[in-house]
Amino acid sequence: MSFLKKSPWIIHYDGSSCNGCDIEVLACLTPVYDVERLGIVNTGNPKHADIFLVTGSVNEQNKEVIQNIYNQMPSPKVVVAVGICACSGGIFAECYNVSGGIDKIIPVDVYVPGCAARPESIIDGVVKSLGILENKQKKLRSMQGGLEKMEILIAGISDSQEILALQKLAYQSEAEIYNDFSLHPLTQTLDEMKEDFKSNVFLKAVINDTIVGSVRAYMQADICHIKRLIVNPIYQNLGIGKKLMSEIEDHFNQAKRFEVFIGNKSKRNIYFYHKLGFKEFKCEKVSENRNRLYFQKIVEAKP
Amino acid sequence: MGGLISGFDRKITARMQGRVGPPIWQPFFDVLKLIEKENLVVRRSQNFYIVFFLILVIFTGGLFFTGEDILLVIFALTLAGIFFVLGGYKTSSPYSFIGAQRELLQMMSYEPAVILSAVGMYMVTKSFYVADIFYFDKPLYLYLPGILASFVFILAIKFRKSPFDLSMSHHAHQELVKGITTEFSGKTLGLIEIAHWYENAFILGFIYLFFASNALLAVFATLGIYFFIIVVDNVFARAKWQMTLVTSWAVALVFGLGNIIVLHFFKR
Question: Within this chain, do residues A290 and A159 fall inside the same structural domain, yes or no?
Answer without folding.
Answer: yes
